Amino acid sequence: MTDLLAGRVLTDAAATQRLARRHRAERRFKLYGLAAIVAALSILAVLLITIVSSGLSAFQQTHIQLTVELREEVIDPQGTRTEANLRLANYKTLVRDGLLEVFPEASGRRDRRELARMISSGADIRLLNMVLNDPSLIGSTQTIWFKAAADIDSFAKGQIPRDVPQDERKVSDKQIGWFDQLDSQGLVDKKFNVGFLTTADSREPEQAGILGAVVGSLLTLIVTLVLSFPIAVMAAVYLEEFAPKNRLTDFIEININNLAAVPSIVFGLLGLAVFLNFFGLPRSAPLVGGMVLALMTLPTIIIAARAALKAVPPSIREAALGMGASPVQTVLHHVLPLAMPGILTGTIIGMAQALGESAPLLMIGMVAFIVDVPGSFTDAATVLPVQVFLWADAPERGFVERTSAAIMVLLAFLIAMNILAVVLRRRFERRW
Fold first, then answer.
1. Taking a C-beta distance cutoff of 8 angstroms, is the pair 305, 343 a contact?
2. Which pTM value belongs to this model?
Protein backbone atom coordinates (compact mmCIF):
# COMPACT_ATOMS: atom_id res chain seq x y z
CA MET A 1 0.00 0.00 0.00
CA THR A 2 2.82 2.38 0.85
CA ASP A 3 4.55 1.58 -2.45
CA LEU A 4 1.33 2.30 -4.35
CA LEU A 5 0.92 5.69 -2.67
CA ALA A 6 4.57 6.55 -3.29
CA GLY A 7 4.19 5.66 -6.98
CA ARG A 8 1.08 7.83 -7.24
CA VAL A 9 2.89 10.73 -5.59
CA LEU A 10 5.79 10.36 -8.02
CA THR A 11 3.37 10.16 -10.94
CA ASP A 12 1.51 13.26 -9.80
CA ALA A 13 4.80 15.10 -9.29
CA ALA A 14 6.00 14.16 -12.78
CA ALA A 15 2.68 15.24 -14.31
CA THR A 16 2.88 18.54 -12.46
CA GLN A 17 6.39 19.12 -13.79
CA ARG A 18 5.30 18.27 -17.34
CA LEU A 19 2.35 20.61 -17.02
CA ALA A 20 4.61 23.39 -15.71
CA ARG A 21 7.03 22.85 -18.60
CA ARG A 22 4.17 23.00 -21.08
CA HIS A 23 2.89 26.23 -19.56
CA ARG A 24 6.37 27.73 -19.71
CA ALA A 25 6.66 26.67 -23.37
CA GLU A 26 3.32 28.31 -24.13
CA ARG A 27 4.40 31.53 -22.43
CA ARG A 28 7.66 31.50 -24.39
CA PHE A 29 5.75 30.95 -27.62
CA LYS A 30 3.49 33.92 -26.85
CA LEU A 31 6.53 36.03 -26.05
CA TYR A 32 8.16 35.00 -29.33
CA GLY A 33 5.03 36.05 -31.21
CA LEU A 34 4.84 39.33 -29.33
CA ALA A 35 8.53 39.98 -30.01
CA ALA A 36 8.00 39.29 -33.71
CA ILE A 37 5.12 41.77 -33.84
CA VAL A 38 7.11 44.42 -31.97
CA ALA A 39 10.10 43.89 -34.29
CA ALA A 40 7.92 44.16 -37.40
CA LEU A 41 6.19 47.30 -36.14
CA SER A 42 9.55 48.82 -35.15
CA ILE A 43 10.99 48.24 -38.61
CA LEU A 44 7.84 49.67 -40.20
CA ALA A 45 7.99 52.69 -37.90
CA VAL A 46 11.65 53.30 -38.77
CA LEU A 47 10.82 53.06 -42.48
CA LEU A 48 7.88 55.47 -42.25
CA ILE A 49 9.77 57.93 -40.04
CA THR A 50 12.70 57.91 -42.47
CA ILE A 51 10.45 58.54 -45.47
CA VAL A 52 8.41 61.26 -43.76
CA SER A 53 11.45 63.04 -42.32
CA SER A 54 13.12 63.04 -45.73
CA GLY A 55 10.06 63.99 -47.76
CA LEU A 56 8.17 66.41 -45.57
CA SER A 57 10.41 69.32 -46.59
CA ALA A 58 9.41 68.82 -50.25
CA PHE A 59 6.00 70.28 -49.43
CA GLN A 60 7.72 73.59 -48.67
CA GLN A 61 9.58 75.70 -51.21
CA THR A 62 11.88 78.66 -50.59
CA HIS A 63 10.82 81.82 -52.43
CA ILE A 64 12.74 85.04 -53.03
CA GLN A 65 10.97 88.35 -53.51
CA LEU A 66 12.15 90.61 -56.33
CA THR A 67 10.95 93.91 -57.74
CA VAL A 68 10.73 93.49 -61.50
CA GLU A 69 10.13 96.25 -64.01
CA LEU A 70 8.17 94.84 -66.95
CA ARG A 71 9.77 97.15 -69.50
CA GLU A 72 7.89 97.52 -72.75
CA GLU A 73 11.07 97.84 -74.82
CA VAL A 74 12.05 94.33 -73.71
CA ILE A 75 8.65 92.63 -73.77
CA ASP A 76 6.84 94.22 -76.73
CA PRO A 77 8.82 97.00 -78.41
CA GLN A 78 6.39 97.09 -81.37
CA GLY A 79 3.40 97.55 -79.06
CA THR A 80 1.33 94.91 -80.87
CA ARG A 81 0.42 92.94 -77.71
CA THR A 82 0.09 89.78 -79.80
CA GLU A 83 0.75 86.47 -78.08
CA ALA A 84 3.46 85.55 -80.57
CA ASN A 85 5.47 88.70 -79.79
CA LEU A 86 4.93 88.38 -76.05
CA ARG A 87 6.30 84.83 -76.12
CA LEU A 88 9.47 85.94 -77.93
CA ALA A 89 10.47 88.46 -75.24
CA ASN A 90 13.61 87.90 -73.13
CA TYR A 91 12.10 87.63 -69.67
CA LYS A 92 15.36 86.32 -68.20
CA THR A 93 16.78 89.83 -68.65
CA LEU A 94 14.01 91.27 -66.50
CA VAL A 95 14.65 88.72 -63.72
CA ARG A 96 18.40 89.41 -63.88
CA ASP A 97 17.79 93.17 -63.66
CA GLY A 98 15.59 92.62 -60.62
CA LEU A 99 18.44 90.76 -58.92
CA LEU A 100 20.97 93.44 -59.87
CA GLU A 101 18.79 96.09 -58.23
CA VAL A 102 19.27 94.30 -54.94
CA PHE A 103 22.95 93.48 -55.55
CA PRO A 104 24.43 96.19 -57.76
CA GLU A 105 27.94 95.16 -56.69
CA ALA A 106 27.65 91.97 -58.78
CA SER A 107 29.22 93.52 -61.84
CA GLY A 108 31.42 90.79 -63.27
CA ARG A 109 30.16 88.09 -65.60
CA ARG A 110 30.96 85.33 -63.10
CA ASP A 111 29.18 87.13 -60.27
CA ARG A 112 26.12 87.71 -62.43
CA ARG A 113 26.06 84.06 -63.41
CA GLU A 114 26.22 82.98 -59.76
CA LEU A 115 23.55 85.52 -58.86
CA ALA A 116 21.23 84.28 -61.61
CA ARG A 117 21.62 80.71 -60.34
CA MET A 118 19.95 81.69 -57.07
CA ILE A 119 16.58 81.94 -58.80
CA SER A 120 14.79 79.02 -60.42
CA SER A 121 15.30 78.72 -64.16
CA GLY A 122 11.52 78.80 -64.52
CA ALA A 123 11.29 82.41 -63.30
CA ASP A 124 11.02 83.69 -66.89
CA ILE A 125 8.08 81.32 -67.50
CA ARG A 126 6.33 82.82 -64.50
CA LEU A 127 6.76 86.31 -65.94
CA LEU A 128 5.58 85.11 -69.36
CA ASN A 129 2.40 83.63 -67.89
CA MET A 130 1.73 86.82 -65.93
CA VAL A 131 2.04 88.94 -69.05
CA LEU A 132 -0.06 86.56 -71.18
CA ASN A 133 -2.84 86.55 -68.57
CA ASP A 134 -2.78 90.33 -68.18
CA PRO A 135 -0.96 92.31 -70.94
CA SER A 136 -1.83 95.54 -69.12
CA LEU A 137 1.03 94.76 -66.71
CA ILE A 138 3.53 95.74 -69.40
CA GLY A 139 5.26 98.92 -68.37
CA SER A 140 4.53 98.49 -64.68
CA THR A 141 6.74 97.48 -61.78
CA GLN A 142 5.70 94.35 -59.91
CA THR A 143 6.82 92.74 -56.65
CA ILE A 144 6.94 89.01 -57.30
CA TRP A 145 7.88 85.94 -55.28
CA PHE A 146 10.05 83.62 -57.36
CA LYS A 147 11.03 80.07 -56.50
CA ALA A 148 14.62 79.77 -55.34
CA ALA A 149 16.92 77.41 -57.22
CA ALA A 150 17.13 73.85 -55.92
CA ASP A 151 20.55 74.30 -54.30
CA ILE A 152 19.51 77.54 -52.59
CA ASP A 153 16.32 75.84 -51.42
CA SER A 154 18.34 72.94 -49.98
CA PHE A 155 20.67 75.42 -48.26
CA ALA A 156 17.72 77.32 -46.77
CA LYS A 157 16.33 74.04 -45.39
CA GLY A 158 19.66 73.18 -43.77
CA GLN A 159 20.38 70.27 -46.11
CA ILE A 160 23.58 71.92 -47.36
CA PRO A 161 25.82 72.96 -44.43
CA ARG A 162 27.56 76.32 -44.53
CA ASP A 163 30.43 75.36 -42.23
CA VAL A 164 32.27 73.24 -44.82
CA PRO A 165 34.82 74.37 -47.43
CA GLN A 166 33.34 75.96 -50.53
CA ASP A 167 34.60 73.24 -52.86
CA GLU A 168 32.63 70.65 -50.85
CA ARG A 169 29.20 72.23 -51.34
CA LYS A 170 27.17 73.38 -54.33
CA VAL A 171 26.48 76.85 -52.92
CA SER A 172 29.32 79.36 -53.10
CA ASP A 173 30.33 81.75 -50.34
CA LYS A 174 29.03 84.68 -52.38
CA GLN A 175 25.65 83.04 -52.82
CA ILE A 176 25.49 82.41 -49.07
CA GLY A 177 26.27 86.07 -48.43
CA TRP A 178 23.62 87.21 -50.91
CA PHE A 179 21.09 84.81 -49.40
CA ASP A 180 21.80 86.09 -45.88
CA GLN A 181 21.34 89.65 -47.11
CA LEU A 182 18.02 88.79 -48.74
CA ASP A 183 16.92 86.99 -45.59
CA SER A 184 17.83 89.93 -43.36
CA GLN A 185 15.72 92.20 -45.59
CA GLY A 186 12.70 89.92 -45.32
CA LEU A 187 12.88 88.92 -48.99
CA VAL A 188 13.07 85.17 -48.29
CA ASP A 189 10.13 83.05 -47.25
CA LYS A 190 9.11 79.39 -47.22
CA LYS A 191 5.71 78.75 -48.78
CA PHE A 192 3.64 75.63 -49.31
CA ASN A 193 4.87 73.97 -52.49
CA VAL A 194 1.65 74.00 -54.50
CA GLY A 195 3.57 73.25 -57.68
CA PHE A 196 4.59 69.84 -56.36
CA LEU A 197 0.94 68.79 -56.51
CA THR A 198 -0.16 70.76 -59.59
CA THR A 199 2.66 70.33 -62.12
CA ALA A 200 4.28 67.46 -63.98
CA ASP A 201 7.91 66.36 -64.05
CA SER A 202 10.84 68.68 -64.77
CA ARG A 203 14.61 68.52 -65.06
CA GLU A 204 14.81 71.15 -62.32
CA PRO A 205 13.94 69.82 -58.84
CA GLU A 206 12.22 73.01 -57.69
CA GLN A 207 9.81 72.82 -60.66
CA ALA A 208 9.14 69.07 -60.58
CA GLY A 209 5.69 67.86 -59.56
CA ILE A 210 3.68 64.67 -59.39
CA LEU A 211 0.44 65.66 -61.12
CA GLY A 212 1.45 64.00 -64.38
CA ALA A 213 2.30 60.76 -62.58
CA VAL A 214 -0.92 60.85 -60.53
CA VAL A 215 -3.07 61.35 -63.63
CA GLY A 216 -1.10 58.65 -65.45
CA SER A 217 -1.66 56.24 -62.56
CA LEU A 218 -5.38 57.07 -62.51
CA LEU A 219 -5.80 56.47 -66.26
CA THR A 220 -3.79 53.25 -66.07
CA LEU A 221 -5.88 51.93 -63.15
CA ILE A 222 -9.11 52.75 -64.99
CA VAL A 223 -8.01 50.62 -67.94
CA THR A 224 -6.88 47.88 -65.56
CA LEU A 225 -10.19 47.83 -63.70
CA VAL A 226 -12.36 47.94 -66.83
CA LEU A 227 -10.49 44.99 -68.35
CA SER A 228 -9.73 42.81 -65.35
CA PHE A 229 -12.86 43.05 -63.18
CA PRO A 230 -15.55 41.68 -65.55
CA ILE A 231 -13.27 39.01 -67.02
CA ALA A 232 -12.09 37.85 -63.60
CA VAL A 233 -15.61 37.74 -62.12
CA MET A 234 -17.00 35.81 -65.10
CA ALA A 235 -14.11 33.36 -64.98
CA ALA A 236 -14.57 32.85 -61.23
CA VAL A 237 -18.33 32.33 -61.59
CA TYR A 238 -17.86 29.77 -64.34
CA LEU A 239 -15.12 27.84 -62.54
CA GLU A 240 -16.94 27.83 -59.21
CA GLU A 241 -20.57 27.40 -60.28
CA PHE A 242 -20.79 25.82 -63.71
CA ALA A 243 -17.50 24.18 -64.76
CA PRO A 244 -17.41 20.37 -64.50
CA LYS A 245 -14.77 18.92 -62.21
CA ASN A 246 -12.33 17.21 -64.58
CA ARG A 247 -8.69 17.34 -65.54
CA LEU A 248 -9.15 20.38 -67.76
CA THR A 249 -10.63 22.55 -65.01
CA ASP A 250 -8.01 21.26 -62.56
CA PHE A 251 -5.33 22.28 -65.08
CA ILE A 252 -6.91 25.74 -65.42
CA GLU A 253 -7.10 26.22 -61.65
CA ILE A 254 -3.47 25.19 -61.17
CA ASN A 255 -2.33 27.63 -63.84
CA ILE A 256 -4.38 30.48 -62.37
CA ASN A 257 -2.66 29.91 -59.04
CA ASN A 258 0.72 29.74 -60.79
CA LEU A 259 0.06 32.98 -62.69
CA ALA A 260 -0.59 34.76 -59.39
CA ALA A 261 3.00 33.92 -58.39
CA VAL A 262 4.68 34.86 -61.69
CA PRO A 263 7.11 37.82 -61.34
CA SER A 264 5.52 41.01 -62.60
CA ILE A 265 8.33 41.76 -65.04
CA VAL A 266 7.28 38.68 -67.05
CA PHE A 267 3.95 40.38 -67.76
CA GLY A 268 5.93 43.42 -68.89
CA LEU A 269 7.86 41.28 -71.35
CA LEU A 270 4.57 39.84 -72.60
CA GLY A 271 3.15 43.34 -73.09
CA LEU A 272 6.31 44.42 -74.92
CA ALA A 273 6.16 41.44 -77.28
CA VAL A 274 2.40 41.38 -77.92
CA PHE A 275 0.90 44.83 -77.39
CA LEU A 276 3.80 46.94 -78.67
CA ASN A 277 5.72 44.83 -81.16
CA PHE A 278 2.84 42.77 -82.59
CA PHE A 279 -0.21 45.06 -82.35
CA GLY A 280 1.78 48.31 -82.59
CA LEU A 281 0.00 50.11 -79.74
CA PRO A 282 1.49 53.42 -78.55
CA ARG A 283 4.48 53.10 -76.27
CA SER A 284 4.37 54.61 -72.78
CA ALA A 285 0.58 55.01 -72.89
CA PRO A 286 -1.85 54.32 -70.02
CA LEU A 287 -3.81 52.09 -72.41
CA VAL A 288 -0.93 49.64 -72.78
CA GLY A 289 0.08 49.97 -69.13
CA GLY A 290 -3.47 49.18 -68.04
CA MET A 291 -3.62 46.13 -70.33
CA VAL A 292 -0.36 44.78 -68.89
CA LEU A 293 -1.47 45.37 -65.30
CA ALA A 294 -4.85 43.78 -66.09
CA LEU A 295 -3.07 40.58 -67.09
CA MET A 296 -1.10 40.69 -63.85
CA THR A 297 -4.18 41.43 -61.70
CA LEU A 298 -6.52 38.86 -63.25
CA PRO A 299 -5.31 35.84 -61.21
CA THR A 300 -5.53 37.78 -57.94
CA ILE A 301 -9.13 38.85 -58.56
CA ILE A 302 -10.16 35.40 -59.80
CA ILE A 303 -8.81 33.73 -56.65
CA ALA A 304 -10.49 36.30 -54.39
CA ALA A 305 -13.77 36.04 -56.29
CA ARG A 306 -13.79 32.23 -56.08
CA ALA A 307 -13.17 32.40 -52.34
CA ALA A 308 -16.06 34.85 -51.97
CA LEU A 309 -18.37 32.59 -53.98
CA LYS A 310 -17.39 29.58 -51.88
CA ALA A 311 -18.26 31.50 -48.71
CA VAL A 312 -21.93 31.78 -49.76
CA PRO A 313 -23.85 28.98 -47.93
CA PRO A 314 -25.14 26.14 -50.13
CA SER A 315 -28.58 26.66 -48.60
CA ILE A 316 -28.93 29.89 -50.62
CA ARG A 317 -28.46 28.00 -53.86
CA GLU A 318 -30.74 25.17 -52.76
CA ALA A 319 -33.49 27.56 -51.72
CA ALA A 320 -33.34 29.46 -55.01
CA LEU A 321 -33.38 26.27 -57.05
CA GLY A 322 -36.21 24.93 -54.93
CA MET A 323 -38.28 28.04 -55.73
CA GLY A 324 -37.87 27.34 -59.45
CA ALA A 325 -34.94 29.61 -60.33
CA SER A 326 -32.63 28.44 -63.06
CA PRO A 327 -28.90 27.91 -62.27
CA VAL A 328 -28.03 31.18 -64.02
CA GLN A 329 -30.74 33.08 -62.11
CA THR A 330 -29.56 31.52 -58.87
CA VAL A 331 -26.02 32.77 -59.45
CA LEU A 332 -26.89 36.23 -60.80
CA HIS A 333 -29.73 37.09 -58.43
CA HIS A 334 -28.64 35.41 -55.19
CA VAL A 335 -25.09 34.05 -55.03
CA LEU A 336 -23.21 36.83 -56.82
CA PRO A 337 -24.79 39.75 -54.88
CA LEU A 338 -23.98 38.02 -51.59
CA ALA A 339 -20.39 37.38 -52.72
CA MET A 340 -19.88 40.87 -54.11
CA PRO A 341 -18.35 42.40 -50.91
CA GLY A 342 -15.58 39.82 -50.93
CA ILE A 343 -15.12 40.24 -54.68
CA LEU A 344 -14.84 44.01 -54.33
CA THR A 345 -12.36 43.62 -51.50
CA GLY A 346 -10.16 41.34 -53.61
CA THR A 347 -10.47 43.70 -56.57
CA ILE A 348 -9.38 46.73 -54.56
CA ILE A 349 -6.41 44.84 -53.14
CA GLY A 350 -5.49 43.79 -56.67
CA MET A 351 -5.75 47.40 -57.84
CA ALA A 352 -3.54 48.49 -54.95
CA GLN A 353 -0.98 45.92 -56.01
CA ALA A 354 -1.18 47.21 -59.60
CA LEU A 355 -0.76 50.80 -58.39
CA GLY A 356 2.53 49.94 -56.73
CA GLU A 357 4.02 48.06 -59.69
CA SER A 358 6.83 49.56 -61.74
CA ALA A 359 8.74 46.63 -63.30
CA PRO A 360 6.15 45.69 -65.97
CA LEU A 361 5.63 49.33 -66.89
CA LEU A 362 9.36 49.90 -67.35
CA MET A 363 9.33 47.21 -70.02
CA ILE A 364 6.70 49.02 -72.11
CA GLY A 365 8.42 52.40 -72.04
CA MET A 366 6.58 54.20 -69.24
CA VAL A 367 9.98 55.19 -67.88
CA ALA A 368 10.11 58.09 -70.35
CA PHE A 369 10.60 61.68 -69.16
CA ILE A 370 7.11 63.23 -69.46
CA VAL A 371 6.71 66.97 -68.86
CA ASP A 372 3.01 67.22 -69.75
CA VAL A 373 -0.04 65.96 -67.91
CA PRO A 374 -1.64 63.19 -70.02
CA GLY A 375 -5.06 64.06 -71.36
CA SER A 376 -6.17 60.69 -72.75
CA PHE A 377 -5.49 56.97 -72.53
CA THR A 378 -3.16 57.07 -75.55
CA ASP A 379 -1.00 60.04 -74.49
CA ALA A 380 2.53 59.42 -73.25
CA ALA A 381 2.47 59.14 -69.47
CA THR A 382 4.23 57.79 -66.43
CA VAL A 383 2.96 56.49 -63.08
CA LEU A 384 3.86 57.17 -59.47
CA PRO A 385 6.16 54.15 -58.88
CA VAL A 386 8.08 54.91 -62.09
CA GLN A 387 8.28 58.59 -61.11
CA VAL A 388 9.83 57.53 -57.80
CA PHE A 389 12.29 55.36 -59.72
CA LEU A 390 13.28 58.24 -62.01
CA TRP A 391 13.76 60.74 -59.20
CA ALA A 392 15.69 58.25 -57.06
CA ASP A 393 18.15 57.87 -59.94
CA ALA A 394 18.58 61.64 -60.44
CA PRO A 395 21.90 63.14 -59.26
CA GLU A 396 20.51 66.45 -57.97
CA ARG A 397 20.14 66.81 -54.20
CA GLY A 398 16.71 68.41 -54.58
CA PHE A 399 15.22 65.22 -55.99
CA VAL A 400 15.99 63.29 -52.79
CA GLU A 401 13.23 64.96 -50.80
CA ARG A 402 10.86 64.81 -53.76
CA THR A 403 11.44 61.08 -54.06
CA SER A 404 10.42 60.59 -50.42
CA ALA A 405 7.45 62.94 -50.87
CA ALA A 406 6.25 60.97 -53.90
CA ILE A 407 6.54 57.77 -51.85
CA MET A 408 4.41 59.43 -49.16
CA VAL A 409 1.73 60.23 -51.75
CA LEU A 410 1.89 56.69 -53.13
CA LEU A 411 1.59 55.20 -49.63
CA ALA A 412 -1.37 57.48 -48.94
CA PHE A 413 -3.15 56.13 -52.03
CA LEU A 414 -2.38 52.52 -51.06
CA ILE A 415 -3.57 53.03 -47.48
CA ALA A 416 -6.75 54.72 -48.74
CA MET A 417 -7.48 51.81 -51.09
CA ASN A 418 -6.95 49.24 -48.33
CA ILE A 419 -9.16 51.22 -45.94
CA LEU A 420 -11.83 51.31 -48.65
CA ALA A 421 -11.58 47.53 -48.98
CA VAL A 422 -12.06 47.07 -45.22
CA VAL A 423 -15.00 49.50 -45.14
CA LEU A 424 -16.74 47.78 -48.05
CA ARG A 425 -16.34 44.38 -46.44
CA ARG A 426 -17.70 45.55 -43.07
CA ARG A 427 -20.50 47.52 -44.71
CA PHE A 428 -21.88 44.81 -46.97
CA GLU A 429 -20.67 41.56 -45.46
CA ARG A 430 -23.31 39.23 -44.09
CA ARG A 431 -22.61 36.74 -41.34
CA TRP A 432 -24.26 33.36 -41.49
1. yes
2. 0.86
